[in-house]
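> forwarded from #structure-qc
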């Protein structure tokens, strides 16, 4: 059954990040110049108030968000990632939630939703549903800040043919190998697709490999 095949792939993606947690910081895609540009953009965005971070990982962005937020909720499916994050960001204004984002719903609404290199792990079949979740997480005038990889990153991946969704092989230093979803969005196409769902996106590249986007609901008339 198609749904079972996709769920299996998503479960393997979670298993991959659980297994990768201890080596994630040494193998991520952010070079120093790109990270500096992204930090500047995030600072200008000013993620203040009640902030929600989806797929928070080891805390590379949690620490920056916690400097602005009055309260930060950080969600991840991997308890190993959350443990590393908690040790890295020992701030009283941060609360952690272990949850599969495809099965989770927010109990409250936030001023800001943030996620980094997560949208590319959302399969095309779940794209609209994911953005519906984001909408449900936001206050009426809430904002989104996202970071992700450009199509140029495809050259660095090992693609799997005939997968239920675009997927890549991800080997670990232990020798284990997992599959993960990888959907590399063209900025113009992403902006158009979000527009069709009622969002307005300002998308900007920071390197040949990375972009960020500030996303808001379109005003209603």
């Amino acid at each position: 059954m198609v749904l079972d095949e996709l769920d299996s792939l998503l479960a393997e993606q979670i298993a991959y990040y659980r297994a990768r947690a201890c080596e994630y910081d040494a193998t991520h895609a952010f070079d120093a110049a790109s990270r500096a540009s992204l930090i500047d953009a995030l600072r200008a965005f000013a993620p203040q108030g009640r902030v929600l971070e989806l797929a928070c990982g080891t805390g590379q962005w949690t620490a920056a968000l916690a400097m602005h937020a009055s309260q930060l909720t950080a969600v991840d499916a991997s308890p190993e990632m959350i443990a590393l994050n908690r040790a890295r960001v020992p701030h009283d204004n941060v609360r952690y939630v272990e949850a599969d984002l495809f099965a989770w719903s927010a109990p409250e609404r936030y001023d800001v939703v943030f996620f980094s290199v997560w949208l590319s792990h959302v399969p095309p079949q779940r794209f609209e549903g994911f953005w519906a979740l984001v909408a449900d997480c936001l206050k009426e005038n809430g904002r989104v800040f996202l970071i992700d990889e450009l199509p140029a990153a495809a050259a660095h991946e090992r693609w799997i043919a005939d997968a239920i969704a675009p997927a890549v092989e991800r080997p670990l230093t232990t020798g284990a190998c997992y599959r993960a979803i990888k959907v590399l969005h063209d900025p113009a196409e992403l902006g158009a697709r979000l527009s069709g769902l009622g969002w307005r996106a300002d998308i900007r590249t920071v390197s040949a490999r990375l972009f960020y986007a500030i996303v808001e609901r379109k005003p209603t008339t």
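QC bot note: The mean pLDDT is 95. The radius of gyration is 17 Å.
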